[in-house]
TrEMBL record:
Residues 1-39 form the signal peptide. This is Colanic acid biosynthesis protein WcaM. NCBIfam families: PRK10123.1 (NF007517), WcaM (TIGR04004). Coiled coil: none annotated. Keywords: Signal. InterPro entries: Colanic_acid_synth_WcaM (IPR023882), Pectin_lyase_fold/virulence (IPR011050), TAT_signal (IPR006311). The keyword Transmembrane helix does not apply.
Length: 475
């Protein structure tokens, strides 16, 4: 799992990466401009080509000074973009051609800046560095393995940035696509939509240590072929969001919160959606294929379509998985210390069909608890997979559950409530506990009952429509 940093400078978390540092402020390069360029001064739109005299960096600088909108024509490739180009506030860059760098180049978007791609508009080994409000990045193609990330959202300035739109971008053959380091500042009203991410070493979207952010929408993305083969630890996730240090009281100021991840189609990766120390969020409408452990083998991350660690108050709804690892919903752990347990969540409309999967894989594995807490799991259908619940929330509801697992792999339903002799037993609810099961069917490949339940000592037990018997209730 990734972890966060509270260093007083712009950086990745201690277990993540060091972003390439900004180059020096651009030095003025003297050159002679044609008369037509001076005549264009004050125009609202102009081609950067008109300012080119052997130095594209200088050409962009002069063009942004001259016009509100600078364009890169379709037949032009601006190369050697190897240092920072700061876009003045309110400027727009329209790209129909190409821009290339060596990994050290970047465009810095300040308040009101836009980078808009037209058909064929592309960036290679250049980072877009968002440092302002009301910024838009739309319609561009990005690639290149030299920079750590294609789009970086962070900076060390303690400020609030609002209304970021990243829409309809394609990122491929790269490390990270979008990386946010959020400890120092705040983002509000962010929409990242309609992306296509493929052949990445790092994450498609990582929102890291984003404890100050509010109202984030990540939706309508295709994520495929994410495979970390470069030996980096914690790389290779589809969409990852993380707060700060785990705390079982779930304080607001330490959690990544108030976000929605929706309408995601993912395939061929180790882990599709990942949340650490989060609260008040929704994950919905996920379609996953071939999420398995053969990808990112040495990255040190769990194999799961959805991985949740130490989170509170969330919903996961309408997830369709085929030949994939299912869910891992587990403790917040640092260096072997169990710091928090998931609580107050609902899973609904979950399907997992591993009938044709030849790899050993988890089904849905959940740890949950705490004195005042609930877990509701409804409308789940799984084939060749196990539903496992560990520890004891105060109120647990299972409704309309149909699971089948092959006998050789273990039970179809496993309920492990009794952790009295385990260090994790401190998270067990003990007062006013409720177990409510309705229409739950757990079978092996022959249709016989297949369950493993260690101990039931809940104060209130309600059951109906079960194909198995509960152990005697211990009071």
């Amino acid at each position: 799992m990734r972890k966060q940093s509270k260093t007083p400078h712009t950086s990745f978390s201690s277990s993540r990466r060091q972003l390439l540092k900004a180059s020096s402020v651009l030095a003025a390069v003297p050159f002679i401009l044609p008369r037509s360029v001076f005549a264009a001064a004050g125009n609202s739109a102009i081609s950067v080509q008109k300012f080119y005299s052997g130095d594209w960096i200088a050409a962009f600088k002069q063009a942004f000074t001259t016009a509100d909108t600078v364009s890169v024509p379709a037949d032009i490739v601006c190369d050697n973009i190897n240092t920072a180009i700061f876009m003045p506030e309110g400027k727009t860059l329209r790209v129909a051609g190409g821009l290339k760098g060596n990994g050290k180049g970047r465009f810095v978007l300040q308040d009101g800046c836009q980078i808009l791609g037209e058909k064929g508009g592309r960036f290679n080994n250049i980072t877009l560095d968002v440092r302002g409000s009301d910024c838009t990045i739309k319609g561009i193609d990005m690639s290149g393995f030299v920079p750590v990330t294609q789009i970086y959202i962070g900076g060390k300035d303690q400020r609030t940035m609002r209304n970021l739109v990243i829409d309809n971008i394609t990122v491929h053959d790269a490390n990270y696509a979008i990386l946010r380091q959020g400890f120092h500042n705040r983002m509000e009203n962010v929409k990242i939509t309609n992306g296509h991410f493929s052949r990445l070493q790092g994450d498609a979207i990582e929102w890291n240590v984003a404890i100050n952010d509010h109202n984030l929408l990540i939706s309508d993305h295709v994520i495929e072929n994410i495979d970390c083969t470069n030996g980096k630890i914690n790389w290779g996730i589809g969409i990852g969001l993380a707060g700060s240090t785990y705390d079982n009281e779930y304080p607001e100021d330490q959690a990544v919160k108030n976000f929605v991840v929706a309408n995601i189609t993912g395939s061929n990766c180790r882990q599709l959606v990942h949340v650490e120390n989060g609260k008040h969020f929704v994950i919905r409408n996920i379609k996953a294929r071939n999420i398995n452990h053969t990808f990112s083998k040495n990255a040190g991350i769990d194999n799961a379509t959805v991985a949740i660690y130490g989170c509170d108050n969330f919903v996961i709804d309408n997830v369709d998985m085929v030949n994939s690892a299912g869910f891992l919903i587990g403790y917040g752990v640092i260096k072997g210390n169990y710091l928090s347990i998931p609580q107050n969540f609902k899973l609904n409309d979950i399907t997992l069909d591993n009938t044709d999967m030849r790899l050993k894989s988890r089904g849905i594995q959940i740890s949950s608890g705490n004195a005042t807490s609930f877990v509701a799991i409804t409308n789940v259908a799984m084939k060749r997979a196990t539903l496992e619940l560990h520890n004891k929330p105060q109120h647990l509801f299972l409704r309309n559950i149909d699971v089948m697992q092959y006998s050789e792999a273990g039970p179809a339903l496993k309920l492990n409530f009794d952790l009295r002799k385990d260090v994790r037993g401190r998270f067990m609810a003990k007062e006013d506990t409720l177990l409510s099961l309705a229409n739950v069917r757990a079978v092996n490949e022959k249709g016989s009952s297949s369950v493993d339940i260690d101990r039931v000592d809940h104060q209130h037990v309600n059951t109906s429509g079960l194909n198995f018997a509960l152990p005697a209730v211990n009071k």
